[in-house]
Amino acid sequence: MRLEGKRAFITAAxxxxxxxxxxAYLREGxxxxxxxxxxxxxxxxxxxxxxxxxxxxxxxxxxxxxxxxPDILVNCAGVVHAxxxxxxxxxxxxxxxxxxxRSQFHAMQAALPGMVDRGGGSIINIASVASTxxxxxxxxxxxTSKAAVIASTKAVAIDYIRQGIRANxxxxxxxxxxxxxxxxxxxxxxxxxxxxxxxxxxxxRIGLPEEIAHLAVYLGSDESxxxxxxxxxxxxxxxxx
Length: 241
Ligand code: NAD
Prior knowledge:
alpha/beta; Rossmann fold; 2 domains; 7 helices; 7 strands; 43% helix; 15% strand; binds nicotinamide-adenine-dinucleotide; 2-keto-3-deoxy-L-fuconate dehydrogenase; oxidoreductase; oxidoreductase activity; NAD
């Protein structure tokens, strides 16, 4: 198994990409701590230690990370705000930055000292292609926060490279998840919005959470031992268009 004996801590493991990563990590032999704002969503992650965790609660997040002493930290929690800069409010700016970015900063700060003591670790931060990779319309706050995720990942990677710690970002394109369906519904025309999302995918389809989880297994495992500080794009060819 590719993650045999490695301790992994995953945020937002209840559904979508985080859930697929938790499932894949369990299959690959990792010792998984799976957390989510909504603990009910963690049902079925047999073999994992599961509990409710709001990643915007700094004290709770940091003590949970220190307790789990992870070899692999997967920061997956995030929220999408729709709209251009004209639509964005200060309150939404704070939510986007606190949930998408600051939570990763806090989790990494808590995980790194233990990783240094143990001689290594792998940090995986979920970003998005909507960031520095490409410009998606009406994703001002989201893209700004996810660009910060990429910069934060690269900064940690360079500062800890000689301590055996790797940090990588995953930049998914459009992936089928419960919140994607909510975003499609919120447009007022689910079918048209879905068609438009698919149309921007050169592959002609939306991705699956499991396809992102394969990359997260690779980045968490020693197979990726020469890879750090990168924004790994996995998007059905969207950014290649
Ligand atoms: P999702 O949005 O459907 O689910 C998000 C999960 O996060 C839920 O289980 C929710 O309970 C949890 N969550 C929300 N607020 C939280 C908080 N404060 N603390 C802890 N958990 C919280 O899942 P998804 O669409 O797979 O998104 C997961 C990550 O992947 C996000 O960071 C998202 O930005 C990123 N992403 C998603 C897509 C996509 O198309 N789905 C594309 C690129 C990046």
